[in-house]
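Annex B, item 7. Sequence and structure tokens for protein A, then protein B.
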Amino acid sequence: MAEGLRFELLGPLRALRDGTEVPLGPPRQRAVLAVLLLQEGRPMAYDALVSAVWGGEPPSHVRNLAQKYVSGLRRAFAAAGGGGSSPELVWTGSGYRLENARIDDLAERRTLLREALSARESGDLRRAGALAREAEELWRGEFAEGLAGPYLAGERRRWAEKRLMVLETRLEGDLELGLYRECVHELVRQVAEHPLRERLVGLLMLALYRSGRPSDALLAYEDARRRLSEEMAAEPGPALRELHARIMRQDPSLLPESALAS
């Protein structure tokens, strides 16, 4: 790890030295850096790097471009200072390896989510939720936002899915804690942003039902059913259909034990 030089990819790529952003050059050069950072110190063959950044039909002068961007990154690292702790981009004989560097915000996210999972498994849902929120706050936009290339486009989709899964798990925990009305507001926004995401719709239905709004929960289902039919020519999946049926028959197990005892 490069002491004092921080790399972030949970949003637009940036490098920080003592809180000051380090210039990293033009977008394609930044894409080269992002791809190499994602190798986590593993060497990347030249052909694989070209395919990752330029795709299957690179320009005829791609070798010159790759060398130009590697040289540009080396100059950026040298200008940032830091001596022996600075990142190094080395040629391995068949490709490139980025040394003394890591994706710091991604590493911090992993640590927070490990701690959140441990807290959840031990029954401390409040701490688990707080840690998950802290992990969410590391995001500044889309993963490697604005950088082109097939490799980063694939990573962007993958991380968007992982981000949503963490959000859904955190909201499930909030519902278990009885934060129904708070969850409704956030889930309405999330469903509007991801209207075909059935797990989010199910969480919204449950939050509405537990907030004493069963009619709105059923309307949320009908809205989702209509969207799926119009956009996907499909019906809701079995989990969402089952939840709808349980709300229709006012299944008492949908309510928390505290509500049943009152």
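Protein B:
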Amino acid sequence: MTTTATYDLAELQKETRMGAMGSETASREIRRIDLTDFAQRKVEIAGQLWDAAVDVGFFQIVNHGIDLTEVRNAFAMTERFFALPDAVKAQYPLRKALNVGWESRAQVRPSTGTPDQKESYQITRPHMEGLWPTDEELAGFEANMLAFEAQCWQVAMQVLSCFAWKLGFDEAFFSRAHDPAQASYQSTLRLLHYFATPPERQASLGLWRAGAHTDFDCLTLLFQRQGQGGLQVCPGKEMDTKAWTSVEPDEQAITCNIGDMLMRWSDDQLPSNFHRVKNPLPGEYMGPRYSIAFFAQANRDAIIDGPRKKYPAIAAGDYLNQRVAANFKAY
């Protein structure tokens, strides 16, 4: 059965290949939700999260519990990793079936037909053997990244507990489905480096930092570095407007979005909406862009079965494989 997000992507692919950028609008609100006193305010916060997710599919959370020094340290480690010579990074290549390791310009999205202008490094806990840089190459990298991944998991589970409650599941439902102690764990921390844009290439047609897409997971947490913008969103229900809203970087906030997996699990009550990373325009910052994303993806053996039984039950691992196969030519 086809979801709204998948259906609308066909038209988006056609327009993007023709070079259509679409207009920009600031009128679409990306809501900021304060998680202060989460336990005491959970009913209030759950309502705010649900309304923001249903309306746009994107929202930002502040006072989320991850100290700013930890975020800055994760970015410093990310920048140091990508500064390693390609010959060193190539020792830890992407294993696409397990979503771990390093790749560069290997992700080709159907919406563009060209490689995203970036490199990335995927961390998925059970499958990292032989894929960590040595301490001689990058001291402290493994320990720092695993600690940051654990903090991201904690925040993601807080947010997902609110959606579980609103969907009629018990509050620990998604924590059990994303259990990091299991070998079937497949949530991923992804470090991203979008390449600097030389002035002579700023008008290049067909090249995107990241073409329009939806995420495949339940929930994405995105950390953006101050001053390094480019993220834009467009709800599928508003695709006819061709209007994209920029989400400006704020190191105090985590930008969150619903993924395809939660859209299905919610029987389409929570939309997984389109986003992209645009190339900088004349007068904008042209240097490298770094971001960090945590993809909360249910364990491979978790069963996705919505409260209204709109879709057949499916294992999360099988669902993820289907989404990847349907959306990437080479990755």
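Comment on protein B: The CA atoms of residues 24 and 244 lie 5 Å apart.
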